[in-house]
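Page 42, continued from yesterday. The earlier attempt failed because a stray header line got pasted into the input along with the sequence. Redoing it now with the clean sequence only.
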Amino acid sequence: MNNLYLYLNIFTLLFPLLLSFDRKVAFYKEWKYLFPAILIMGVFFIGKDVIFAANNIWAFNDDYLLGVRILGLPVEEWMFFFTVPYACVFIYACLLAYLKVDPLKKIHRPFLFVLAVVLLVVAIMNYQKLYTSIVFAITALLLLYNLLKKQPWLSMFLLSYFVALIPFLLVNGLLTGSFIESQVVSYNPEHNLNIRILTIPIEDSIYNLLMLLMTVQLMEWFKSWHNQPDPVMMGENRIMD
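This time it went through. Structure tokens are written below.
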């Protein structure tokens, strides 16, 4: 199907964007924190993508693309780094708005710690496989950093990641060849573990984890920074008291 990657981007964004104005979630109010977070995350991921594509770690099939490339990447790949984070963080916002109980509150820290250690060990043991080693190592270090900081949003972030795995399997499955004749994105087996969930390299699930983690962390940081009390106003209040 021509332009399949474009249609997947549109489908990924459509419903979260339309539902962003739900009264209880009111996701549009988070845009001032979310968009800068996506921008910073996107610069990192696009830079990595440009390098990976230039070194044939992965490649894109023009049969499913518009044919427009920027820095060697299809324009659809640039769109991916807005549509997918937006949709995933929308899931995170919905869970915060609608869940009264945090189901992973007691187990998220040990789970994420074990995951980080496993990812770090696998990255070191497979240092020559660049997709595996780079993505696993960065994800592990970022997880350990946030665990050390005892971020209060980590448990809900983890739950949103698990929920996002459902649409992830559909969208990424199509990108990697499920239900279509060929692959939109093909991977050099020399640079990954060659372990697949259906047609999806296992690295892609960690790639998605890293993308969501980085976006949520930045968004929450912008939010907390914006909500800090003004030191000038605090000083004036002390004088008035």
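Notes: The mean pLDDT is 92.
Reminder to self: strip header lines before submitting.
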